[in-house]
Design goal:
Elements lengths: L2 H7 L3 H10 L4 E2 H8 L3 H13 L3 E6 L2 E6 L8 H16 L1 H43 L2 H11 L6 E6 L5 H6 L3 E8 L2 H11 L7 E5 L12 E7 L8 H10 L1 E12 L5 H7 L8 H10 L3 E2 L3 E3 L6 E7 L16 H7 L2
Parallel strand pairs: 4-5, 4-7, 5-6, 7-8
Antiparallel strand pairs: 1-3, 2-3, 8-11, 9-11, 10-11
Helix pairs in contact: 3-4, 3-6, 5-6, 6-9
Length: 338
């Protein structure tokens, strides 16, 4: 980050307002235009200047473009952190600027309400589908309690929630994580998750569109990776877990919450499940094949389906990898291992 473009970016009142808004929540370009009362092309020009200066960053989700602050205490960029602190101090000391920022934040209420209305409409359209799936594997609360116990009260650090869906798990675990990255392939699901997570601090949670077969993160980025009722959508679950292991730091943990092996073929036909659950033997092979050290699984019997929780850890960088001596059926090996 260079001082000249940073100071030029902060020399315009609208861009100061944008930075204060982004300190509170991530916003789409159209949402920013709505709050600022300016045209979208004009707001886009301001966004380009802020992004070029390294103060903000864009993220594309389908046809939408979202903007978030690129500076926070965690990243430790001195100029960016200093700029953020200066703007916060200016809002406290400059009454005119404070009034303008307060008015902008009042407009955020309409943005939040619109997101929530969109989420409610989505659930109304898909209520029957969600209810059918819940009836098959029971209530969510016992599974979530068992997952918290399986993670044994540890600080989750940097958490990646793969296939975040509605954002329920990201919300549940945010208090135990340093920060949460909620990833989903579907822009519509990310909009649902954004409505749920929008009250969390802006630097606490990030939403990313991406595919679990090619995670858009550097190696060793996360302390915890979660797959909650997601892995059964994978055509090659071994490759997906290999990607998760790649972005996991040494000593980090992976948790997989999914269905035990079953024969409910209608889930494949009606709900796009690529896998009809997993046996413990299959999951052991998948996890060890990804270079992970599995713990004992946890079972939560339902009617008719059972939910399983499998956890595993990545060993420290100096420890030898565990050999995979698990016998497998040759046909099973072709479909479950990378």
């Amino acid at each position: 980050m260079r001082i000249d473009p940073l100071l030029r970016a902060l020399s315009e009142p609208t861009r100061l307002r944008i930075m204060r808004l982004l300190a509170h929540m991530e916003l789409a370009v159209g949402e920013l235009a709505q709050v600022l009362g300016q045209s979208q092309p004009r707001v886009s020009r301001h966004i380009r200047i802020l992004c070029d200066a390294g103060l903000a960053e864009r993220r594309k989700e389908g046809s939408w473009v979202f903007l978030r602050s690129a500076v926070n205490e965690r990243d430790g960029l001195p100029l960016g952190v200093a700029a953020a602190r200066l703007l916060a101090a200016a809002e406290r000391a400059d009454a005119t600027f404070a009034a303008r920022c307060a008015e902008d934040r009042r407009h955020l209420a309409a943005i939040r309400a619109g997101r929530e209305a969109s989420a409610q409409a989505y659930f109304a359209r898909h209520a029957e589908e969600w209810d059918t799936l819940r009836l098959l594997h029971g209530a969510d609360e016992p599974v979530e309690a068992a997952l918290l116990q399986a993670l044994d009260g540890r600080d989750l650090g940097a958490l990646l929630d793969v296939g975040t869906g509605t954002g329920r798990m990201a919300e549940l675990l945010a208090g135990r994580a340093g920060n949460v990255t909620a990833l989903d392939k579907s822009p519509e699901m990310l909009r649902i998750a954004r409505a749920r997570l929008q009250t969390l601090p802006a630097d606490k949670v990030g939403l990313v569109q991406g595919d679990f077969t090619a995670l858009p993160f550097a190696a060793g980025t996360f302390d915890t990776v979660l797959f909650h009722q997601v892995l059964h959508y994978a055509q090659d679950p071994g490759a997906v877990l290999g990607e998760a292991a790649r972005v996991l730091r040494p000593g980090g943990r992976i948790a997989v919450v999914d269905l035990a092996a079953h024969q409910r073929e209608e889930l494949r036909e009606r709900h796009a499940h690529a896998r009809l659950g997993f046996s413990d033997e299959q999951m052991l092979a998948l996890l060890t094949g990804a270079g992970l050290f599995p713990d004992a699984p946890v079972a939560l019997p339902g009617d008719p389906l059972t939910v399983k929780i499998w956890t595993a850890r990545r060993e420290s960088a100096t420890a030898p990898a565990a050999p995979d001596n698990t016998p497998q059926d040759p046909d099973e090996r072709k479909t479950t291992c990378p």
